[in-house]
Amino acid sequence: MDADFFAFEDVTWQTVPPPARHPVPAAYVPDLDVGDELTIGLPNRYFIDGQVLLRPEREVVDFSDDGTLHESLAVCAPLHYWTWKASPSRNPVMQWWPVEYAWAYRDAGAPGESAPTALDAMDEQRSWLDRVRLDASQPPVLLPVPVREAGALTGRALRSRNPAGEWFWFVGVSEPVDVHGEICVQVVPSSHWWLHQVGYYSELQDKVRSVPLHRLFAYV
Fold it and tell me: Does residue 2 sit in helix, strand or coil?
């Protein structure tokens, strides 16, 4: 029988997990740019993910927590950033935050490194105790898990890959749903997630996508 009869599309790329994400001190990130996400906080107290760099310049300001001068970044909440991008006449609420208390998450792995085939976060032998850290001096390393293992998905940052191997970020706007016989999750680009919260934008409605469940990953 003709071998072409048995030919099928190689879809293994759809289930290859993304790399782990590591927090890099913002002071050592050479390509930090306006719009980049940052995690800010105070070591051994708290961390706040998803803040956004609003301006390229830095200023040396007095930080109220310790009363000393620090080189600082202009950061704001993502809601303020994306509404400002949509309406530049807005005056976004921002703060100057010490660069030594800011981190940018970056993918692990060197160019040419083989893609992971197994994930520590998916290992059934692992316990929640494995996530207990010795200290909270910096944000944690984030590990990818298939969304079917991630719990609630609405409002979660999700990642998916295209056939060319490029990774894209989305935000889940539904739980798993049957779409024409395939289990999917409705997602939107990160910027749209915030804009949908402040108004109805007709031009964004066709950007809501249904992505098959097996092609999406979350981080824990």
Answer: coil
Residue 6 falls inside a structural domain = no
Scored b (16 or more CB within 10 A) or e, 121-132 reads: beeeeeeeeeee
Indicate if the pLDDT at residue 84 is higher than 70. yes
What is the total count of domains within the chain? 1
Evaluate if residue 80 carries a pLDDT over 90: yes
Confidence of residue 109 (pLDDT cuts 50, 70, 90): confident
Is the residue at 186 inside a domain? Answer: yes
Residue 209 belongs to what domain range? 12-108+115-219
pLDDT digits (tens, 9 = 90+) for 147-188: 999 999 999 999 999 888 899 999 999 999 999 999 999 999
Degrees, nearest 5: CA angle 14-123-174: 50
Listed residue (184, 189, 219) closest to 206, CA to CA: 189
Angstrom distance (rounded) from CA 95 to CA 62: 12
> Would residue 1 count as lying in a domain?
no
Supply angle C-alpha 145, 189, 163, rounded to 5: 60
